[in-house]
Amino acid sequence: MSTYRLKNLLSPRSVALVGASARPASVGRAVLENIRKAEFKGKFGLVNPRHAEIGGIAAVKSLDKLDFVPELVVVTAPVQEVPGIIDQAGRLGSAGALIVSAGLGEGPGSLQEAAIAAARKYGMRLIGPNCLGIMMPGVSLNASFAAHMPGAGNLALVSQSGAIAAGMVDWAAQRGVGFSGIVSIGDQIDVDIADLLDYFAMDHKTRAILLYIEAIKDARKFMSAARAAARVKPVVVVKSGRMAQGAKAAATHTGALAGADAVYDAAFRRAGVLRVSDLRELFDCAETLGRVESPAGKRLAILTNGGGIGVLAIDRLVELGGIPASISADAGKKLDEVLPATWSGANPVDIVGDADASRYAAALDVLLADPDNDAILVLNVQTAIASAADIATTVTERVGKYREQQRRWAKPVLAAWVGADQEIIASLSSAGIPNYPTEDDAVRGFMYLVGHREVVEELSQVPPAMPDTFVPDAKAARQIVAAAIADGRKWLEPVEIKDLLEAYDIAMVPTYAATDVEQAVAYANEIFAQGSTVVLKIMSRDIVHKSDVGGVVLNLTTPDAVRAAASDILARARKLRPEARIEGVIVQAMVVKAKARELILGLADDPTFGTVVVFGRGGTAVEIINDKALALPPLDLQLARDLIDRTRVSRLLKAYRDVPAVKQDAVAMVLVKLAQMAADIPEIREFDINPLLADETGVTAVDARVAVGPPQRKFAGSGPANFAVRAYPSQWERRLKLKDDWRILVRPLRPEDEPTIHEFLRHVTPHDLRLRFFAPMKEFTHEFIARLTQLDYARAMAFIAFDQATGEMVGVVRLHSDSIYESGEYAILLRSDLKGRGLGWALMQLIIDYARSEGLKVISGDVLKENTVMLEMCRQLGFEVKPDPSEPDICDVRLKL
């Protein structure tokens, strides 16, 4: 249900606590005391049927005895009373409840199920149960049993662990870090991580969102929310269970390589979420992201009074991928003028151990003005010569003055005072300077800022267009898989695999299935005639890894050798695996490419995120080498390249010594094709190509295994049910015939359409742009267009129209759903010189059809009153048109579906 009614729960005007106890050590009493201490400004009522007052606060026996209807009901009552409390609150009109109580159970007939049913009956939202509570400093609400109330700030924390949330509060109190909100979500029977990501992403008081995650329940919902949030502000996650093994035993190498935590890593990367490994790193992220904006680059200048610590900082910076800033010639001259001759003369700027506050100030002023750095780290090692506290005070004054002068575009300044006392920490923190106990923590803090900027850039990159030559024969591929499933088989036969790969234009060595020795010889003779040698492999659906039973013999050159090898393979397999069904032998051409790289590519099935694409170093020792990377499909060429670049074997794909580079994008295209195959055929459970030989001529699959079975629907909504990220909906491509035989191609918008959109906008008049965007539009930046083109098809759709004769874009219509996926807001724009030819009508009908197919109940829009053509078209399409009561120049249009 996303953000529906969340504002009522997280910023309520009235609160009731049900279940507060008179016992001093009880959870209910702790929550009551915290609400009182925080001095909640709205109406507050206490409900307890057994006490007339608790801690000096009057109580009533039931919610209906209050003289107001609470927006938020906080429940700490015994679990057997919870469903009844929720039902009563819903009847009264409460927006939601925070269930702190634990032990509601799960499954049919449980108290949890009863509470959910009661809430749904009235449209209530539920946080919890089994949680620490919520802390919202902005409205002075501490409905939790945490030991401290955090101060107001700009960080949001969402935690599946109450203990972690409480620990963050304690840490923040020591460091002077404030929060816009802290929500402990407990068992997530309604409000979940994705809902809160959506809420805090749109909260103007929140600069960054911190997550503590143990497991994701709805992967598609989480991916949509995380991708949307990460575009507008940093999202940082720490996930427990990093060392846990995969959820099931895997039959293929790709399945074995796709461990559970590696898939979470891939999901976070795809969403644009910054992952950290532990609480210390999460604290560092909070320290950094809560105080400063991301820098323009990753060049860090380091100012220090200790050369050793400065060098350590540089080492860590380089190790983490940062760049030690150079000192510009002009800045170098100025530093020479204000520093002793013994200063280091380079970065780190070591101003010597006797540096006092004035020397720090002089050097810092020069570095702040130097264009050759993007941020500054100030280090101080305390000495008996100069006061560390005075230096900290001077640095905060200089940074404050600099920020006033620069206003919005100030460089980040970070600090590490080794062994600093609380007074110095408080001084730096109060000035908004991120500060850390060591140089290592500080450099990590800087790299978190860099990481967020790079994530935003990656999310807005324009992917390369797919080659028009790739048109898979999905129908033929589906028939191959369907036939195997109908036959009761879990694995495709080698010849079927070859045909499957050919349907997606993936080359495989000539492959034949021989049921006996003499048939193997006959197929081998065909291969000999083509000038190749032969490899034989055991053919058995029960023996997945053939080499384990000596079931592979290479480089056979004569019919007699083939006959002998086939006999040996069959005899050895029957001896070592007497229970296995032996169908015969596979006969393949022996591909000898001395300079080819052996790779593994494949698909694996994850119980949380569905289909995963795996790439890495191939060969028989693939799992021992364990050089692999994972990605969530669908993939475009840019995502496939990134997947490859995250492995060590990617370096071998480049040219070295006398070995030519692998053909450009040949491997990436196979990854894209595999991802498309997974979208087209969800019956593919696991897929292994190992090895895939890659060289300057291209790629060839030598061996492959494909596990199939009836599709296991994982995610709600249309599109591939096995994808956590909703794939490009190609089924919505249309060819339309309009007035005067005008033929139009309409298809869903793709990220690589950005250049096309820029060109299209050149053909739209300023007047029409104002009617669409409600304001004069002089410039369309890359960032602006990227937001329009890089759709999350689970939440939005846009159809782009092309003139089939010229290939030019002529119009676009888009729809974005609300948070509960009941209604969608539309917008439409046509080329100004092509209006009046029926295109607008056709696009509106298409988006209405799409909305119906998605189960939306209403389409709405805002239209300027002067846009009479659009208003008339809306009336003809059945929209209700009404003036906007708050905007006299705008009409609200609404169509019930």
UniProtKB/TrEMBL annotation:
InterPro entries: Acyl-CoA_Synth/Transferase (IPR051538), Acyl_CoA_acyltransferase (IPR016181), ATP_grasp_subdomain_1 (IPR013815), CoA-bd (IPR003781), GNAT_dom (IPR000182), Ligase_CoA_dom (IPR043938), NAD(P)-bd_dom_sf (IPR036291), Succ_CoA_lig_flav_dom (IPR032875)
Matching SUPFAM superfamilies: Acyl-CoA N-acyltransferases (Nat) (SSF55729), Glutathione synthetase ATP-binding domain-like (SSF56059), NAD(P)-binding Rossmann-fold domains (SSF51735), Succinyl-CoA synthetase domains (SSF52210)
GO BP term, example: tricarboxylic acid cycle
Entry superkingdom: Bacteria
Keywords recorded for this protein, A-Z: ATP-binding, Ligase, Nucleotide-binding, Tricarboxylic acid cycle
GO MF term list: acetate-CoA ligase (ADP-forming) activity; acyltransferase activity, transferring groups other than amino-acyl groups; ATP binding
A Pfam family it matches: Ligase_CoA_2
Domain N-acetyltransferase: from-to ranges: 744-897
Family stated for the protein in its record: In the N-terminal section; belongs to the acetate CoA ligase alpha subunit family.
PANTHER family named among the record's database cross-references: 3-HYDROXYPROPIONATE--COA LIGASE [ADP-FORMING], ACETATE--COA LIGASE [ADP-FORMING]
Protein name: GCN5-related N-acetyltransferase
Species per Swiss-Prot/TrEMBL record: Bradyrhizobium cosmicum
